[in-house]
Every structure is written in C-alpha cells, then in structure tokens.
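#structure-requests
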Amino acid sequence: MLHKKKITVFSALLVFVVLGLAAIKPVFQKERNLKVLPKDISDAKLDSIMQTYNIALGVKCNFCHVPMKNITDSLDYLSDAEPMKENARKMMSMVIEINKKHFYFDETVRPEYLNTVTCNTCHRGHEFPTED
C-alpha cells in the first residue's frame, strides 16, 4: 500500500515536471520581433546589420529600442513602444525595395542583404537624412 502511494506521488510529480518543461521555451530559442528582416537571420548577421544602422545614423541602440522595465542598462528589443522603431522598419523596407528593384542582379544573395543603397547613402552619420 505504501509502495503504491509512493509510485502515485512520484508519477504525479513527474507529470508536473514534464508539463512545466513543455510550457517553457528552450533557452536557445530567442524571441524576436522581426517584421522586415528575415525570421531565419542569424544572430551574427542581425547584430552586424544593426551595427551598420548605428554607424550610418550616428546613433545608439536606444534610438529605436526602449529601456526594459525593472532592468537597468538593458533594452527591450521586443517592444514596439518607441515610434522610431516603426519608422526604421519603413526605411528598411524602402532600402530593400530600392535594391531589389534596381540592383538585384545576383539571385544567390537575398535582397535583404544587398548593400548597394544603404542607410548611409542618405544619412551619412546623421539621425535624419542630410544633404551635406
């Protein structure tokens, strides 16, 4: 009788552990809020592209990303609270479309990764496009 209770309790605990693990996303699957860039972009490629935006506009990441609540010195990359983030998406779409329509000669390169026309073409290190 005691043996059956132990097996029942152990089984119930095992079920809760398995259900709990199934409810959690694996650590290696990062959540992303990508609406223009491809969903399958590598972390390295995404970081590289974001760094080129920083340089081309002379800004830091907080230009488009809001701070995380309750975590100092961290940004909430999933949040769309900063209006400049949506503006950046529109600009990215525009650049991708220009490159795809006018400079897409090598079909082995994804149009999102073409860099014939870039943010720097118009921004030249400034937050907003400049003529100088």
